[in-house]
Amino acid sequence: MIGIIGHGFVGSAVSNAFTNTVISDPAYNKVTINDLIGMNPEAIFVCVPTPQSETGHVDGSILSDVLSQIPESILTIIKSTITPVNLPIGKKGLVLNPEFLTQANAKKEFLNPQFQLFGGNYEDTIRAEQIYKRDYCKVKQCPFFHTDIITASFVKYSINSFLATKVIFMNELKSLYMNSGGQDWNMLSSIIGKDERIGKSHLMVPGPDGMSGFGGACFPKDTSAFSNFALDNGMPLKVLQAVIAKNNLIREAAK
After folding, report:
1. What pLDDT sits at residue 178?
2. Do 91 and 63 form a contact (C-beta atoms < 8 A)?
3. C or N: which end of the chain has fewer Cβ atoms within 10 Å?
């Protein structure tokens, strides 16, 4: 049996992928974390919110509270997006397995990943990989990467930050193109996307939500969290800071 804590779009995608799960989420049912632990699950996926704080950092308080309740004897697989400073790095049985899902297509994307990334103690990450290879797991097999927990966190934030940067570059490019008398933006972006070094994703202006810039549940929160994490470490990511500032201007102008 697999335990799942949190039943938002990520937790729902996890429960859809495994055939024998028990969910704990006060907004969904009355199963407590202690109830879940008492069932002796093979692993517990933690899919709780990590919202943006008032300072722009990631708020890891919900995740920290949940992790403090789970004993080290139970393999704990974190799906929540979180910066390294908010993780109990030395805790045994802890694996960071970042998700790369869009809210609109989370279940389908979870079943068809490009890769799986496991960060933590090597023995624990191997155990996490085996969970994905069990007969009750419907996730398509793909490349598996094993690394330390800090690297796993950086991969998630780096990908989202890079894609957000790509979105803003395309927004600025479209403004320049149209101001220069360009007549076929769709053709331009389509040709650019044919270059495999760039790829076709995140070139649409306006985006899927019908607005310019980036929004949604992940990019604004994750870029802010990563930028503030870097700033706190005395190594500001100046390109990312500029991307966030430009996006704020774009989104404000669209209101």
Report:
1. 96
2. no
3. C
d(C-alpha 197, C-alpha 175), whole Å? 23
Q: Which residues are within 8 A (CB) of 228 and not within 5 positions of it... i.e. 6 or more apart?
A: 55, 56, 57
Q: What is the per-residue pLDDT for 90?
A: 83
What are the angstrom distances between the C-alpha of 57 and each of 62, 156, 221, 241? 14, 16, 8, 13
218 among known catalytic residues: yes
Whole-model pTM: value is: 0.94
Range of the domain at 176: 159-254
What CA–CA distance (Å, rounded) separates 131 from 43?
A: 8
> Which of 119, 147, 175 is a domain's end point?
147
Catalytic residue among 47, 137, 142, 218: 218
CATH number at residue 121: 3.40.50.720
